[in-house]
Design goal:
The protein is an all-alpha fold and 318 residues long. The protein folds into 2 domains: 198 residues, Citrate Synthase, domain 1 (Orthogonal Bundle), CATH 1.10.580; 106 residues, Cytochrome P450-Terp, domain 2 (Cytochrome p450-Terp, domain 2, Orthogonal Bundle). Helices cover 60% and strands 3% of the residues. The chain contains 15 helices and 3 strands. Strands 1-2-3 form a 3-stranded antiparallel β-sheet. β2 and β3 form a beta hairpin. The radius of gyration is 21 Å and the shape is globular. The two termini are 29 Å apart.
Length: 318
């Protein structure tokens, strides 16, 4: 749930208090209401590793798509093409009892959860022409494995730390956003999880949903170009007012429920300050945080003048 004064709360745990947990631990918490002990975590990781291999036909389909295909179209297609392996579909056709639906749906969901990082990393490599997809390393955790499969240099290990944090902070956001709601709606027709997740991804691809952090990044880069670096506080204040007077919003600021700085923003900000605090783009993000809430309060229209997670998540990936 999202508490206006606490932020995202996962099974009774404010997200800021569990931000440094492994994504696998948060996944277990979401399913069971409890954080796993060491042995349970090891068993979960082993189960996911056994399910992680992506069928070769998935890579064949992705490589056959037009070179200018959007990565989200590729991602959705990859999930949909794996529907042929759905446990739910097979058992439903065999007449499974209604009280067993959840078991078959869980099997499909675990298979998907295990394969999605590999597919996402492979799509990145195919789309950017970096080479063939890289296989997972069963000795690595979820986040570190995804970072490695992207094939990007990470001499300090901080990129893997960022990916872990990114996966944890984006783990859940109730059921009201477009992608989650779509997934629930499609699943309510007893469509198997492959159909439901693929449909949800199509909603996530929309510019008002999954592209929100990209819009925030564009806003920061535009400011960097305009002022040839980090603007002064007065320049930034005037830029914010000019944006508002032109009828635009300040991307990444405000939230339908929150009335505080998004704790996910705070966690990302602390990471960025530690790892890349002197980077020019991060300094612009920091300056926006210092100036824009005051401008929005002065304007008087925003119920929540504080930054949400999108204000910084895309910048750190950039």
């Amino acid at each position: 749930m999202v508490d206006p004064d606490k932020g995202l709360v996962i099974r009774g745990n404010p997200i800021g208090q569990i931000a440094n947990r492994l994504p696998e631990e948060i996944f277990y918490l979401l399913l069971t209401g409890e954080l796993p002990d060491t042995e349970t975590l090891r068993e979960l990781q082993g189960d996911l590793n056994q399910r992680a291999e992506v069928p070769s036909y998935v890579w064949d389909v992705l490589k056959a798509m037009p070179a200018d295909s959007h990565p989200m179209a590729m991602f959705s297609t990859a999930v949909l093409v794996m529907e042929r392996d759905s446990v739910f579909r097979g058992r439903y056709a065999e007449g499974m009892r209604k009280e067993e639906y959840w078991e078959a749906a869980l099997e499909d969901s675990l298979d998907l959860i295990a394969k999605l990082p590999n597919i996402a990393a492979g799509i990145y490599r195919i789309h950017t022409r970096k080479g063939d997809p890289l296989p997972p390393d069963p000795k690595l955790d979820w986040g570190a494995n995804y970072a490695r499969m992207l094939g990007l240099p990470d001499p300090t290990g901080e990129f893997a730390n960022l990916i872990r944090l990114y996966m944890t902070l984006h783990c859940d956001h109730e059921g009201g956003n477009v992608s989650a709601f779509t997934c629930h709606t499609v699943g309510s027709a007893l469509s198997d999880p492959y159909y439901a997740v693929s449909a949800g991804m199509n909603g996530l691809a929309g510019p008002l949903h999954g592209l929100a952090n990209q819009e925030c990044l564009h806003f920061v880069l535009e400011m960097q170009r305009k002022f040839n670096g980090v603007p002064t506080d007065e320049q930034l204040r005037q830029f914010a007012w000019d944006t508002l007077k032109a009828g635009h919003v300040i991307p990444g600021y405000g939230h339908a429920v929150l009335r505080i700085t998004d704790p996910r923003y705070t966690a990302f900000h602390e990471f960025g300050g530690r790892v890349c605090g002197e980077d020019e783009i991060f300094r612009i993000v920091d300056a926006i945080f210092r100036i824009v809430p005051g401008v929005l309060r002065e304007q008087g229209k925003a119920k929540d003048p504080w930054p949400n997670v999108d204000a910084i998540s895309g910048v750190l990936l950039y």
